[in-house]
Design a protein that fits this description.
The structure is a homodimer of 286-residue chains. Chain A is of the alpha+beta class. The first copy, chain A, contains 9 helices and 12 strands. Chain A is globular, with a radius of gyration of 18 Å. Chains A and B meet through helix 1, strand 1, strand 2, strand 3 and helix 4 of A and helix 1, strand 1, strand 2, strand 3 and helix 4 of B.
Chain lengths: 286, 286
């Protein structure tokens, strides 16, 4: 079973609604709370050269990225840590706290346990007005599909292009951009943590729509051959860029560095230059 | 380092305020949100005979117990699961969902990962009016100190008194009682998951007060010799009863089965029948 097949079984118990977005959505007066939890392990989720400080930072960043993908403002983060070595607690917490501070979230509490393998679980809560919530569903045929930044740089670092290390080791969630996109009327959104191809398939599943991409529009990674750059963007993991859709009148979005890479279709297919895009990328296998 | 020594180091980074209560407290308009996260592992936290359904139930129950200990109403729970066997996902989720349903919380979302050892992390958010929040600090010398139910039954089950299995295997968090106690004016509160003795030391640390207990007042576990029963209540883990303080006018609290076991003092000592109570009980060692 891969992650997405397992998710099908989960949906049978807990309902489809709570599985299709980057965050759970909970009504709270005239606003929504959004909430996400992410479990990460040393061997499978953190590159070997990542420091403890960077592991703390990244654990919070992935959760803030989920909150950003809903158009929401992060409020607070809880951190449950299964420590394999008590000496790592201080740098882990310092990295986590600095990431919270950078994006205006409070590191509000947590739990400590011990474990053979370092396990980090960050849970975050954000808030957003009802009008500005953005889900994975909502794209309309004819909308543009866009990405922030330059996808593929984290994977490039993983494959030895060390000039992109900071994208892999200290990912910057697009918190500011997510809120602006929500306020500007983006029609659907998610973050890119599993690569562009898989994320497009997720967005297609949630929104019952397709996408026609043009390879020439996908931002090139500077200093990497074009074919390789495209491969990294489509199938590489570890980016925390935002993937979103919106009407043509959305562009350019003031304050958001983003690139239209194709458009939304009504036929549930995902194509690149007219050919079906392979459904592969970063995912765990069971 | 034991849990509490480690906590001292954590407080140096994240601040003392976020470590002394069962939940983090976040202002939200005229109310507070309270939030807690708990990490549990198969080998250290779940008895071998616990079923997958019961593991799911218990993982949620511990978090709802933390929310109850603040006097708050549970709103939603997120569940991050590190699965050691994909076939266990359905019973785990069914147990978790039934516990949520029983106490009026929404199982709003989660994350799945795989792991050598089953790892469950439940994170819960509750809400409470500003007037009814109860913290670990707040006890006043002269207040009564009380417990709900009969502490020690989970430990009794662990030691072979199988008639108490349900307290160990399907703990019932005191959600209704916690809210009533908040609304009735309890001055401080926490849950009893680590045993009565350690919990009293935690409550003393947070509230800068002491406690004088009378052994004759601690509820006896039916069918267990008195000395053994007292040992189980004071030093056994796995209960999810509430420990709280309040003025004499608080009693009896309508709708809450609770027993005064002593009173609050101003001298920071914890005594049982006049002798210092050993600071031991259920805790992990590093």
């Amino acid at each position: 079973l891969d992650d997405r097949e397992l998710l099908q079984r989960v949906m049978e118990v807990v309902g489809k609604d709570c599985c299709l977005d980057d965050c759970a959505v909970i009504p709270a007066g005239d606003r929504y709370l959004v909430a996400s939890t992410d479990m990460l392990h040393r061997k499978t989720d953190f590159p070997e050269r990542m420091t403890e400080w960077q592991i703390g930072w990244t654990s919070v960043a992935v959760t803030l990225s989920d909150i950003a993908a809903m158009g929401a403002r992060p409020c607070f983060v809880l951190l449950a840590i299964g420590l394999d070595d008590t000496s790592s607690i201080i740098p882990l917490l310092k990295g986590a706290k600095e990431c919270c501070d950078t994006y205006g979230a409070e590191l509000a509490g947590g739990d400590l346990d011990h474990h053979d393998e370092l396990t980090m679980v960050s849970s975050g809560v954000g808030e957003v007005s009802r009008a500005h919530l953005v889900r994975r569903r909502g794209a309309v045929p004819g909308d543009l599909v866009c990405v922030t930044g330059i996808p593929g740089r984290a994977q490039a670092a993983l494959e030895g292009y060390s000039e992109f290390d900071r994208f892999l080791l200290e990912p910057r969630p697009r918190v500011r951009e997510g809120r602006i996109l929500g306020e500007s009327g983006a029609t659907s959104m998610m973050d890119l943590s599993d690569g562009l191809a898989l994320s497009l398939y997720d967005l297609s599943l949630a929104g019952d729509s397709g996408f026609a991409l043009e390879s020439g529009k996908i931002p090139a990674i500077p200093g990497i051959p074009r074919d390789k750059s495209l491969e990294l963007a489509l199938f590489g993991g570890g980016d925390y860029e935002l993937l979103f859709t919106g009407g043509c009148d959305l562009f350019p979005v003031k304050g958001v560095e983003a690139t239209p890479i194709g458009h939304v279709t009504s036929d549930n297919e995902i194509t690149l230059d007219g050919s079906v895009l392979p459904r592969r990328g970063y995912q765990h296998h069971w």
